[in-house]
């Protein structure tokens, strides 16, 4: 048996060396080469699919896409919110301006209405008010009448017949009467501004009163304002040694 094994091994080797030729029916035919050997185990392992890796890649890609979408949506939402806020602010400003304009118009209308009401009230009051009373006429100044009974000196005055033209006074016309003969009551009340009618001499206006001593010189009459008057009244002051002089012009 051992001899056979040793014989066969060379024969097989010889056949391998012959290669692609086999004798069939006295002729030779080409024999195809053997199929290539299978790749090594390491190459098969490198090209084999990895389901877990692919799943991780898909999950990561989905996560990134979701995050990108969320960022985009947040940006879009922020833009929309900002635009809405701007629109709301513009609307609020417009409403405030409209309210202010309406308030100003209302105030102006109220002022116009108040002014019109005041004018109407004034017109109504003017229509209803009675006509103003005429201005009172100025009161006529007081007046006095001095009768002149004659002319003469001290004897004529002492006769107590009434006022006389006292002729010893030559610087002016003196109308004299004793106080106890009625001269005080007739002349003492006459004040500046009184209209005095002197019988036989005309109408004058009293302008000044002056007190002098009895027996004074006639020239004291020149102390009246403006100098010697054209005419004056004189009478004694009861119970004294003085005389009252009243200048007329």
From TrEMBL:
InterPro entries for this protein: PcsB-like (IPR009148)
Alphabetically ordered keywords of this record: Coiled coil
UniProt feature coiled coil, ranges: 60-100
Protein name, entry field: Peptidoglycan-binding protein
Classification lineage: Bacteria, Bacillati, Actinomycetota, Actinomycetes, Micrococcales
């Amino acid at each position: 048996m051992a001899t056979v094994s040793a014989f066969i091994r060379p024969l097989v080797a010889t056949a391998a060396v012959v290669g692609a030729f086999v004798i069939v029916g006295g002729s030779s035919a080409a024999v195809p080469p053997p199929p290539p050997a299978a790749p090594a185990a390491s190459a098969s392992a490198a090209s084999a699919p990895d389901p877990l890796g692919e799943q991780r890649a898909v999950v990561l890609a989905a996560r990134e896409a979701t995050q990108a979408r969320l960022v985009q949506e947040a940006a879009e939402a922020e833009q929309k919110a900002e635009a809405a806020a701007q629109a709301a602010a513009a609307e609020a400003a417009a409403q405030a301006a409209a309210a202010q304009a309406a308030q100003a118009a209302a105030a102006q209308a109220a002022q116009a209405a108040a002014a019109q009401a005041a004018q109407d009230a004034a017109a109504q009051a003017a229509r209803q008010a009675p006509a103003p009373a005429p201005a009172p006429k100025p009161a006529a100044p007081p007046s006095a009448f001095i009768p002149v009974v004659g002319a003469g000196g001290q004897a004529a005055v002492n006769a107590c017949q009434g006022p006389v033209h006292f002729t010893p006074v030559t610087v002016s016309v003196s109308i004299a009467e004793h106080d106890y003969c009625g001269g005080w009551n007739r002349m003492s009340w006459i004040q500046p501004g009184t209209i005095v009618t002197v019988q036989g001499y005309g109408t004058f206006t009293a302008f000044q009163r002056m007190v002098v001593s009895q027996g004074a010189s006639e020239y004291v009459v020149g102390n009246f304002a403006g100098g010697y008057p054209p005419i004056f009244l004189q009478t004694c002051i009861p119970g004294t040694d003085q005389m009252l002089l009243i200048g007329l012009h």
